[in-house]
Every structure is written in C-alpha cells, then in structure tokens.
Specification:
Two copies of one chain form a homodimer. Chain A is an alpha+beta fold and about 350 residues long. Chain A is built from ten helices and 13 strands.
Amino acid sequence: MENRSEISQLGEFGLIERLRGNVTLTNPTSLVGIGDDAAVIQATDDECILLSTDMLVEGVHFDLSYVPIHHLGYKSVAVNVSDIAAMNAKAEQITVSIALSNRFSVEAVDALYAGIRAACESYGVDLVGGDTTSSTSGLIISISVMGRAKRDQIAYRSGAKVNDILCVTGDLGGAFMGLQVLEREKQVFLADPNMQPDMEKYEYMVGRQLKPEARMDIVYDLLEAGVKPTSMIDVSDGLASELFHIVKSSGVGVRIYEDKIPIDHTTYETAVEFNLDPVTCALNGGEDYELLFTISKDDQEKIKNHPDIHFIGYVHDRKDQNVLITKQGTVVPLRAQGWDHFKG
Amino acid sequence: MENRSEISQLGEFGLIERLRGNVTLTNPTSLVGIGDDAAVIQATDDECILLSTDMLVEGVHFDLSYVPIHHLGYKSVAVNVSDIAAMNAKAEQITVSIALSNRFSVEAVDALYAGIRAACESYGVDLVGGDTTSSTSGLIISISVMGRAKRDQIAYRSGAKVNDILCVTGDLGGAFMGLQVLEREKQVFLADPNMQPDMEKYEYMVGRQLKPEARMDIVYDLLEAGVKPTSMIDVSDGLASELFHIVKSSGVGVRIYEDKIPIDHTTYETAVEFNLDPVTCALNGGEDYELLFTISKDDQEKIKNHPDIHFIGYVHDRKDQNVLITKQGTVVPLRAQGWDHFKG
C-alpha cells in the first residue's frame, strides 16, 4: 500500500515551497525564477522580460451566479497585469487559455473575450496566443503575461532596507467586503428569488471585487517622480500576508500603524454592518490588487503629495518583530491569514 | 430569452478563428500574435522571444487510469517545447500551473513534478514560475513556454514556396495506435481485472503515446547542416491537418506520396490488427510531435542522408489541390481530420 499524504496538510504555500525546492536554473538568460510576482528573463544587456501566470478555476476563484462573465474576463487580465506592475514593470503581451464545458454558449465565450479585450486595451497589452479546449466541468482560465523593464528598474520582494518607508496604494478591504455582500445577496436570492436586492450603497465594494484594476498608473507615477521602490508586491492575498512575503524575502521586520491603513468609509461601515472588524478586513481581505512597496526615506518627499499613496509604517532590523500599532498605541503582533484554496 | 449558440457547432478551430478575428496588436514588440505555433516578441534588434501555451485537462487530454502521472508531467513539457521547436527555435523557460482536486495526494504531485523536471533537464529548459490551486474535479495542467531565436532563423507556417520539398521527421501514427492499444487494454481490464495484458509487442507505440519527445535534435541538426526550413509546424493533430495549416498560411498546395510516409512496422501491423488503415492512421492520428517542414530544393542535398528526415512530397502553386499519390499511382484528395475536442 502506497503512502498517501494529503495536500490540505501542506496547504498552498507549503506545496509551492515543496515544488520550488527541487528547481534549479540552468539557462544564463533565466535571471530569477520562482519566488517573486514574476520570473525575470534577460532580453538585452540592460532590459529584461518578466513572465508570470495565474489560473482561475470556477467554483474556487469565481462564482458565475453573481460574477458577470464580461467582468471575469477583465479581472483575469487585470490580476495578471498586476503581477507585472508589482515588479515595477510594464505588461506587454498575454496568452489566454480556457477550458470550458458545454454549459457555456458561444455568446458567453464572446462576452468573456470582450472583457479580456477591454482589459488588454486599458493596459496596452496584446493578446498574442492561447489555447481553447473543452472541460468536463466548469470554466478554467489560465493567463500568462509578459512584461518588460530596464534591469535596474525591477523591484523585487527582497529589496526592503532598514528605515525604508512602507507604502500602500488606494484603499484596502473593499474587494473582500464586496465579496461578502455578493455572497449574502446570493443567499437571499436563493431563499426568495423575488427579492430585489438594494445594492446601491455597496456599489464601490462590489466594483472592487468584480472589476479590480492593476495599478499600472502607480508604476508610471513613480517613474515620473524619480522613485524606484526598494521592494514591491501586489496585494492579492491581503496586506498582512504580503507584508510577510516582503519581510521574509528581505530579512527585515516591519511596524505599521493602524490609523495609517487606508480604508474607504463604505468599506468601514459595511464591515461594521457585517459584524466584522474593518482593520482585520483591510489586513486580511484579499483581491484589492493595490501595490505594497517600500521606498528609501530620501524619496518620501518626492511622492508625499500623491493622493493615492499612503505611508503606513517603516522597516526595521528585528526580523521577527512584525507589529501593528493600534490607534490606542498598543503593539500587536501581525499575523498573516492569507487565503489558502487547499485549506479554505 | 437570450440567444444561445453551441460551441460544438463552431468546433475548436471555429472558436479560435472567431476569437482571433477581434484581436489587434498594438505594442511594437509584438511581432506575431495568434496563428502560428508560438507568438513572436522582439527581444533585441536581431533576436526574438517565442511564447506558446498549452492546457491539458483530465478526462479530455489524458486518462490517469492508464497514463502514469510521471509520464504526464514529462509529456506536458515536451508538447510545449515542441511548439517552440516548430518555430525552429530553442525553448528556455516554462511556467507550470496546475489545478487539482483532493483526489490527488502529495506523492502524486511529487511524481508529476518529477516528470516535469526530467523533461526540463532533457530539453535544457528552466521552470521559472507557475500557479498551484485546487479544482472541483480532476487535474488541469497549463504550461507556458518561452523560447529564443535569431529573428532570421524563425520558421513560420506561412513560408512554404512553390517547388519546396516537404519533409517529416521520425515516423507517424505510432502515438495514435498506442492510444488505441491502451484504450483496448483498459476495457479488457475493466471487464476482468485479473487479465494480465501482454503489452510487449505494443511497447514502441505505447511509448510514443505516453512519452513523446520534442524534436529539438532536428532543430540543431538543421542549423548545423545550414538548412533553414522555409516553413515548419509540429505534428500534434495529424499530418493531414498540419499540411492544411501550412498550405492555408502559405497560399500553396501540396502533393505527397503514400510510399514516402514514414510508418514504423509495428504501427503498421497493429493498425492492421485493429482493422485500421495504417496510412489513414499516419495521416490523421495525432500526438506524434514530429516536425513537418518545407525546405528549398537547393537544400535537399544537405540533409538527404539524415536518417530521421523523410522527403514526402513537394509544394506546388495550385492552392486547392492537396493530394496524396497512392502506391498504385492514384491521385486522392487529402482531407484534414484533426482532432476536435469540442466535436469529438
């Protein structure tokens, strides 16, 4: 009888770590492999190609009972472009592979690709290839994205230095609260299909969940301001989880301030309505696709008036001290509770 | 009531054509998009990056009741490398995304990745990224591959010229017959689990099905011989189907000779045993992953002694006359019967 270990015991990150452990790079053009938002491949002496990929599975990553398929197409591209933005680079090409069951009509596929094309247009990305096949159940979307950057402009998770300033863009927790709202309305609808949900007050959060944007604008703004982030990552699994990626890769610790964490007022109010702590939602809710990055103290002045960049804390040298300072001045250890599809 | 058209009516190629129709390229680095074995992206003035992707779905592309998962990992990489070989280029990096249900153990994933790593080593390709997620049913593998070539060395489907010689490598129909053998043994086993199948005489074909190799060796041999194919494609859907891709893209016609089509003697004998026509199997059986290419007449001398390259016919200018000359000298129109997962 063969030994059998369950993947749920390892979890998604454990499995990735396990698979990553056996990998070595042999081509001189493979500069950086697994472990950041994108792989880095040498193109010319001073320019690199970035390569990243994401897979979205129906029933795991999206629920078509409330996600319009056009938005799903847009979001699939946006989250991939976000991985390139997180390297401080510009996305240029994508490939899109889909597997779909006969539940899907040609019109549904058209709507999905209309969303994909809209995102391509919005981000200046070309759809250059893909694969189309049938599946035995549901829809699977696999996108790969190629980006480009000057070699010395690429921002890694590992570059955070002591005394750097921690920055985050936009606001957090909105996409998570949007998901809560959509899930609740689905239950209400299932119980009574005649109920007309009043979604107006949740519009912002639902939009954050259904149609997130990659923050390419920030990449351009930083370039224009002459600021190269010392480290960067996109917020897909939640602020806390991404902070841990940065501190682990950089060998540092972080201190962040509760009152600096950007939360939209509707997100705040809706969290309270759902009996959830708004700060916990901002720390651990995923899918905002904002950028989290560190900058040298010397650069702070250059972007201090940017309306969408928030300074939330700083980097220090005590590796295992990652803390949140509450509004009351209490020091609370940070915990990563990023989403794990195998455990979830 | 919304209009609903079935994808099965369009078929896989129809769907791809439909999706492709709306795509335009905007980045100057996007040299060639959808429509060949790989997209072509400018890297330097004289060097290009090739990008291709493939998705394999359990129950559609493979059956784990007779495919060892280690071989599946190897094959997933090989078929992607084959797409780069088909551009007359060298594969350098891949990303591997998998979605898997809790039916799969950690040991099964380890075996899959052992196969993936073995193929990476065999082809000198680096695994640089990927995604790992859960699925509601079965295993899905999505691989993207990046290759590299001098811009003037890239071979497209569209370059076949009148009077060019048609070449094919290895032998054809073996992978298809291997699949027939495996499917028959599965039925025998299901009927009586105590039956011990005698697979020895089918070993070659089963190997062709389970562990195909990308013909990177041919790419190197052609380079060494100083031969640049005028057009090239890999044989994944069957010789006839690939010939039609070349003639359609190149605006030419082809004439091939039945007695020149390379068929291994065990493939021939097994086809007869299965009451199948061996030539039909070679023409329409897929998954051999050999290379089909055209060369200028002037280059024929340079590779005429290559033991694994066969001259099967030539290119002419009558676009709609694609014919097979039988051993008896009869002229038969070629028909493409490539596999269609949506119709099949």
